[in-house]
Design brief:
mainly alpha; Arc Repressor Mutant, subunit A; 2 domains; transcription; DNA-binding; TetR_C; DNA-binding transcription factor activity; Homeodomain-like_sf
């Protein structure tokens, strides 16, 4: 049985899903979670209200499916051959996403919603688990090359790269420039080599 808002069929239904999720993302970026009205999503997507209500049921259902779509369509991991290179690539990908006018606003809205809605929080956690899991093999390869101590937790290393960037986005308001991405990657790499993430 598939949970609400996560069916991924093809054909016309896939086109409807794409249009609805695009409209939902636009509204989230513009107005935040509180402004995510299913009737307006349907109008923008040019589909019937009953289609949206029947398939997603709630704003939370829409956000959950939107996060599934974002995880599925995110940029794939790349390998540079070095731990620092891989972490820097990851940091710059995160930074570009967060400074994007639409994507940055979208993440802020979803994170804000997740603080007060358990289902949105679960969808957000699943999204980040997917992203972190996709990049963790870079750290595993670094362990095999001798760039990181045996026993290093790859997932913790990847989390350490993006954490300072999200802090700038959500808390401090400091610039999210390329230098900040480089520093985040360098700090995570140095901490990794020093054994900070050994289980």
């Amino acid at each position: 049985m598939t949970s609400e808002g996560t069916v991924r069929p093809g054909g016309r239904t896939a086109r409807v899903r794409e249009a609805v999720l695009r409209a939902a993302g636009d509204l989230l970026a513009e107005r935040g979670f509180a402004g995510l009205d299913l009737a307006e999503v349907a109008q923008r997507a040019e589909v019937g209200k009953t289609t949206v209500y029947r398939r997603w049921g709630s704003a939370t259902g829409l956000v959950a499916d939107l996060l599934v779509e974002m995880a599925d369509s995110s940029v794939s991991r790349t390998e540079t051959g070095s731990l620092l290179g891989d972490l820097r690539t990851n940091a710059h990908l995160v930074r570009r996403t967060l400074v994007d006018e639409r994507q940055g606003a979208l993440f802020k809205a979803v994170i804000a919603a997740a603080t007060c809605d358990a289902r949105t929080a679960a969808a957000l956690h699943a999204f980040y688990a997917t992203r972190v899991g996709e990049w963790a093999p870079c750290v595993t390869a670094a362990i095999e090359r001798g760039e990181a101590p045996v026993g290093t937790d790859p997932h913790e290393v990847i989390r350490a790269v993006s954490a300072p960037l999200y802090y700038r986005l959500l808390a401090s308001g400091d610039p999210l420039d390329e230098a900040s991405a480089d520093r985040a990657a360098a700090a995570a790499e140095a901490a990794t080599r020093a054994g900070a993430f050994v289980r």
